[in-house]
Amino acid sequence: MPDLKTQIFTMYQRPNFEQNLAKWANRHVNGDILADIYDGEVWKTFKSDDTLFFTPELADSNLGIMINLDWFQPFDRTIYSTGVIYGVICNLPHEIRFRQENMLILGLLPGPHEVHADNINHFLSPIVTE
Asked: Which top-level group of life is the source organism from (predicted)?
């Protein structure tokens, strides 16, 4: 499994990837309706070094990554669950954000059973550190 930097570097090599990252900055906003993560208070006010992190000027480089965990059964006729920790780049438009080619595979959780909620932090720690 490629590391996070390699996965992101590969995405940036694709045509129109950077333009898609910046689309959120020029979208039509419909008043007080929360249509996507960009409309939320955190996106509008999140700071790094006392400056706003999500700005139109940095829309293609300051990435907001949402971490997700999903379980699946890789085998038929047996009870065996494997988990995948993946990230999606929130800067991308919603209609392409969750496409397989835009997902960052961050880790796999072993089976045969789902990891208990109190143990998931052990798997998340190295991801957060990176």
From this structure: Eukaryota
How many structural domains does the chain have?
A: 1
Q: Is residue 29 part of a domain?
A: no
Q: Domain range spanning residue 69?
A: 4-23+34-129
The dihedral of CA 26, 45, 37, 13: what is its sign? positive
Mean pLDDT is lowest, of 25-34, 64-73, 81-90, for: 25-34
Give domain status of residue 118, yes or no. yes
In order of 8, 33, 39, 84, the CA distances from 105 in angstroms are 10, 32, 26, 7
- Cα–Cα distances in angstroms (integers) from residue 115 to residues 1, 25, 105, 120, 122, in the given order: 21, 38, 18, 7, 10
Residue 28 lies inside a defined structural domain of this protein:
no
Residue 60 lies in a domain: yes
Q: Kindly indicate the confidence band of residue 91, based on its pLDDT and cuts at 50, 70 and 90.
A: very high
Q: Which helix (H) or strand (E) holds 97?
A: helix 94-97
- pLDDT score recorded for residue 84: 93
